[in-house]
Amino acid sequence: MSTTTLTSIPLCDLKAQHEVLQEELAHAMQAVAASGHYILGPQVKAFESEFADYCAAEHAIGVGNGTDALHLALRALKIGPGDEVITTPFTFVATTEAIGLVGATPVFVDIDPSNFNIDVDKIEAAITDRTKAILPVHLYGQPCAMDRVMAIAERHDVKVIEDCAQALGATYENRKIGTWGHIGCFSFFPSKNLGCFGDGGAVITHDSELAGRVEMLRRHGGKVKYHHAELGLNSRLDEIQAAILRVKLPHLDAWNVRRREIADCYNGQLANLEAIVVPTEEFDRTSSRCVYHQYTLRIAQRDEFREKLTSRGIQSFPYYPVPLHLQEVHASLGYGQGSFPHAESAANECLSLPIFPEFTAEQQRMVIDAVRSVRSQTPQSRLCA
Ligand SMILES: *Cc1c(COP(=O)(O)O)cnc(C)c1O
């Protein structure tokens, strides 16, 4: 029996996607290079319009990255020092970084252990007279129950900013995420469901005043060139990235369908294994669609399990190993071990497996066999179509 593993299966293979679209992408980049127009030109304008159409939003504004999208959304809503923003402790740090950077205070609410997203039932108890916004994150591509979030926001007259960085294309009750709240924030970081060749992001909104504020703030806070009303940022999507995104956007739905097929295949062959919990979709699958930015298991003795997978040539990663309320950067908020037990156990048990649109059935079979063998099960050797 062979003891060495020659193959290595990555969590995400960005080169595989590039190979498929290589010619079109090279052409698009070359055309921008030759145009002499590199910042806030026709490509960004066209992408903003196509992206708004895709999301069924009134306005889309291209910005420098997803973190800035959140930052600019908060600034556009005039949220700042003394204000509180309710969010989840189980997300990427960018979510609370943006809140902190505008001088506001993140207020955490524990997650729902069944879907890793903010527990909507616990939001209302966290609202105070300083609360200005609720910032749900559609983690791993799984939509939050936005109708219920919006009902709470309306009752208390607070705004809703959706962090859609991991969930572009996901729907909740037949409506794209990002269009439920007052403002939706996206990232085009290369490994996101729609990724460019560097940093990129966008904000969407139905509100033309908010759109105008984001547009002004992304370019130094002035409506008229060299006249500055507010402190802004330099945070623009650039022409090359916009051109790349315009090539890729028409493929996004097919890629997301493929991600769902991969998740279904994993679920079919990993459910019922000892001490493994596969992800579940909470809502009706025809009207609410998870887009599986990550396929994330819960596993007891996660780190030991992960080491065994690594030794079998399979990459995996615990997104995220430390919840935000236990991060040094947020020590001043005064939370501690035990503040949010569901987020803490998710951080201890979560493990994301390889998933990307170009993942082959054969690669997936190897991952499934490796997981089963770590659990002392016979290989299943069943290829999903
Ligand atoms: C990626 C990500 C961001 C930040 O996006 P960048 O483009 O990397 O700045 C924000 N929130 C979540 C949940 C993310 O996954």
TrEMBL record:
Catalytic residue list: 192 (proton acceptor)
GO biological process entries: polysaccharide biosynthetic process
Keywords noted in UniProt: Aminotransferase, Pyridoxal phosphate, Transferase
GO molecular function: pyridoxal phosphate binding; transaminase activity
InterPro entries from the UniProt entry: DegT/StrS_aminotransferase, PyrdxlP-dep_Trfase, PyrdxlP-dep_Trfase_major, PyrdxlP-dep_Trfase_small
EC number(s) reported in the record: 2.6.1.90
Gene3D superfamilies in UniProt: Aspartate Aminotransferase, domain 1, Type I PLP-dependent aspartate aminotransferase-like (Major domain)
Record family assignment: Belongs to the DegT/DnrJ/EryC1 family.
PANTHER family to which the protein is assigned, alphabetical: 3-OXO-GLUCOSE-6-PHOSPHATE:GLUTAMATE AMINOTRANSFERASE, TRANSAMINASE
Protein name as catalogued: dTDP-3-amino-3,6-dideoxy-alpha-D-galactopyranose transaminase
Source species of the chain: Adhaeretor mobilis
Recorded name of the encoding gene: fdtB_2
